[in-house]
Amino acid sequence: MALLELKNVSHIYHSPEGETWALKDVNFTVEEREFVSIVGPSGCGKSTILAILAGLLTPSEGDVTIGGKPLTEAKGTTALMPQRDQLFEWRSIMRNVLLGPEIQKNKSPEIVTYAKTLLEKYGLSEFTSKRPSELSGGMRQRAALIRTLVTSPKLLLLDEPFSALDFQTRLQVCDDVSDILRQENKTAILVTHDINEAISMSDKVIVLTERPASVKKLYSIDLDKNLPPLKRREQKSFAVYFRRIWKDLEVHNE
Amino acid sequence: MSDEHKSYLKKIKIRKLVIRIVQIGLLLLAFGLWELSAYFEWSDPFITSSPSRIVTSIANLYRSGDLFKHLSATLYETVLSFVLSTVIGVIVAVILWWSAFLKDVTEPYLIVLNSLPKVALGPLIIIWVGAGRGAIITMALLICVIITIISALTGFLSVDKEKVDLLKAMGANKFQILFKLILPANIPSIISILKINVGLSWVGTIMGEYLVSREGIGYLLVYGGQVFKLDLVMASTILLCILATLMYLAVALIEKLIKRFYK
């Protein structure tokens, strides 16, 4: 059974100027331990899907189930990694990482140990008591990712988490995130406007139509899963996927 | 350390020293000229007073035992209204942040109250609260509290929405969003509110003392002006300068402590 299933999910935004259909009958599934990217024309409603999955929005229509249960009954099963790292400047890295457990009031010694292990494993052990401003952009992203991991969510929601980084850091962070998620056996959905990023990181790429968004195409990415994203970019079929997805998006931009 | 860096550090040190010397020199020069012009009667010391007359005036106040009575009255009123307005202002801002409905309802009232010169309410305050300390503190409070509410609320509302969403996605309730995000994120803006309120609460207190005219530095100023004792007016002004500066320094110290705690 799929970990996540969206069935005919539609969403309408209301404003005094009128109503906007952001999503119209979105259907897809995500299997356990899968990395799925969602790409689409800008402003098509990609982020709306994540907001729904994060529990920030209730869809106007349709069903979302996680592990067979409706999303509303599955609190704490998803964790959001926002566009910029959004680390709290007045907290140390350790206290930033433990924000989720603190909010959910289950900051047990086990979770603190788990957080320490993760920070150590991913090269941040020296920075646990440092402020976010003392870290590089790449380290901040890693800290933000660990913050989403400590609550042991079933599904990670990555909302263009690399868009604020410079190109080099971005490639490095993509490798880092991919590696960390693989090691921790996590399922993740990445929303991005970068086709390269989507293909190189994912098992599956979902291409959305223009607003109101629905699933236009679904690609299973058949690249070597053991390679880091940067290396996967060099594989032959990578360019093929790129051209096809590019074309999907291009038609809509006319 | 390279020689170049050494000479660079030395340059900075010398510059700092020169600035201090010029600052003190200017003050001494001004007071010296002032004293001389009074001594040689280039100007009428009855109108312009002089540093020595100011010192005498302060000494007289001290001898009669009135100095501390007036100073402490003013200081008490200012500190109390400063603390009250900051606390009340921030609490009201929290309430308005909490309820968008209340915020929208009160918006026009806040705008009107903010643009109204609060001094105009003086006569009303005296009649309603009575011509005493209460009126002075009310006046100072009114002057500070509206701007505190407005600036604190602006700060609360300008916290990055993505951060709020992050907490919401973690399942945070409104209390947690307030105490884990909104308030800590606004420590810098609350500090700058403190700094503004130091100045404003002095304006309010002196204004209040003008109107109530019982005791305090504001009273000394008005009284001195009415009986043409300009030595007293000048002395009060100097005392006010010293007190206001001390209070500003105290707030700067609080800022330093908070920053150390949060950085």
Determine the structural class of chain B based on helices, strands and strand pairing: mainly alpha
Radius of gyration of chain A over all CA atoms, rounded: 18 Å
CATH superfamily of the largest domain in chain A: P-loop containing nucleotide triphosphate hydrolases
Give a count of the beta strands of chain B, DSSP E runs of length 2 or more. Answer: 0
Q: Which sequence of strands runs across the widest sheet of chain A?
A: 6-7-8-3-9-10
* Low-confidence residue ranges of chain A: none
The oligomeric status of these chains comes to heterodimer
Which stretches of chain B are poorly predicted, pLDDT < 50 over at least 5 residues? Answer: none
Assigned CATH architecture of the largest domain in chain B: Orthogonal Bundle
The helix/strand order of chain B is HHHHHHHHHHHH
Overview of the structural elements:
The complex is a heterodimer of chains A (254) and B (263). Chain A is α/β, with parallel strands linked by helices and 254 residues long. Chain A folds into two domains: 4-77 and 155-253, P-loop containing nucleotide triphosphate hydrolases (Rossmann fold, 3-Layer(aba) Sandwich); 86-152, no CATH class. Chain A has helices at 46-53, 93-97, 99-103, 109-121, 137-149, 167-183, 195-201, 229-232, 236-253; strands at residues 4-15, 18-30, 35-39, 61-66, 69-70, 78-81, 155-159, 187-191, 204-208, 215-220. In chain A, the strands form two sheets. A six-stranded mixed sheet of chain A has the order 6-7-8-3-9-10, sandwiched between helices. Chain A has a four-stranded antiparallel sheet with strand order 2-1-4-5, covered by helices on one side. Chain A has nine helices and ten strands. Chain B has 263 residues and is mainly α. Chain B has helices spanning 3-39, 45-48, 51-63, 66-98, 100-115, 122-129, 133-157, 161-169, 174-185, 187-212, 217-226, 230-262. The longest helix of chain B is centred in the first third of the chain and has 37 residues, at 3-39. The model of chain B has no long low-confidence stretch (mean pLDDT 92). The A-B interface holds A 51, 54-56, 75-76, 78-80, 82-84, 86, 88, 90, 99-100, 102-104, 131, 151, 157 and B 160, 162-163, 165-172, 176, 180-181, 184-185, 187, 262-263.
